[in-house]
């Protein structure tokens, strides 16, 4: 079997469809999380989703849908803890994250499932995705994309400045919960592509990459969607090509390819930002009124004052005033 013949198989075609939808949907939510400085929220929800996957395996139902339900409940709990702003809120979040991961592993063992079965969701196994999983991925990803783009003005306003958004009449609490729910759905969508432990990378890294080259929020959002899809499809194709020579998992390959894109664009973004700073005008400084001080000597190379050269003449700074020397002539002050 050659490399191109691999794409004629149904499992590879299903994997390509799932990768495309996942790569487009995940950065949509990631853009708002990065804007709100909650880049690691997807990672926390991924830990909670492990319990949902284990519940699906234990009850014999679809792990995707049980993961969606548990992830949404966990995301709402995370947002509630974050919004209350208690000093021990980070401890509560840590307990929630680790409890979700440990509970999932425990329930998976009680259900008699092997560790290999759970690892398909922890690290991704897109080549084993079923038709029903593809349909669920397409439906959930489409919902995330439509809501994330359709409500972009409101979600951006809340993410940028919550106080201003509240003054304008937006229901800040509702939109914060909505972003958390979208993040939970995105985690469930991406768990078969890159895995629950790596899903946050697909949500954040394309956004960070697009920010190196763009300045407006809408352009960043659209560019992140394109970069996410390119990383997902490119990582899947690259892992398929490398699989002829070694065992290469698609999930880590997608994440590493996305990180490689950021590494390539970061120097370009740093150069663009430096050029922008150099083009900024110097701030205007108002002139200061001063009273001249009298002194009896002439300013010259041996007067002991700071000399500042300007072209063909030298200014000597004394008491904040400049005294110019032109050849052998000194301005008295």
Distance between the termini: 92 Å
Largest sheet: 4 strands, antiparallel
SSE-based structural type:
mainly alpha
Number of helices: 12
Q: In total, how many beta strands? A: 4
The low-confidence parts are 325-333
Global mean pLDDT: 79
Assembly state of the chains shown: single chain
Explain how this protein is built.
The longest helix is centred in the C-terminal third of the chain and has 30 residues. A hairpin with a 2-residue loop joins strand 1 and strand 2. The termini are far apart. By secondary structure, the chain is mainly alpha-helical. The relative contact order is 0.13. Helix 1 crosses helix 10, helix 3 runs antiparallel to helix 4 and helix 3 runs antiparallel to helix 9. Strands 1-2-3-4 form a four-stranded antiparallel sheet, with no helix packed on it.
Jot down its keywords:
disordered C terminus; single chain; mainly alpha; four-stranded antiparallel β-sheet; 4 strands; 333 residues; 6% strand
Strand and helix layout:
Layout: H1 10-35, H2 41-59, H3 63-84, H4 89-110, H5 115-122, H6 131-150, H7 152-160, H8 162-167, H9 172-190, H10 199-211, H11 217-242, H12 250-279, E1 306-310, E2 313-318, E3 321-326, E4 329-330
Condensed summary:
The protein is mostly helical. The protein has helices at 10-35, 41-59, 63-84, 89-110, 115-122, 131-150, 152-160, 162-167, 172-190, 199-211, 217-242, 250-279, and strands at residues 306-310, 313-318, 321-326, 329-330.
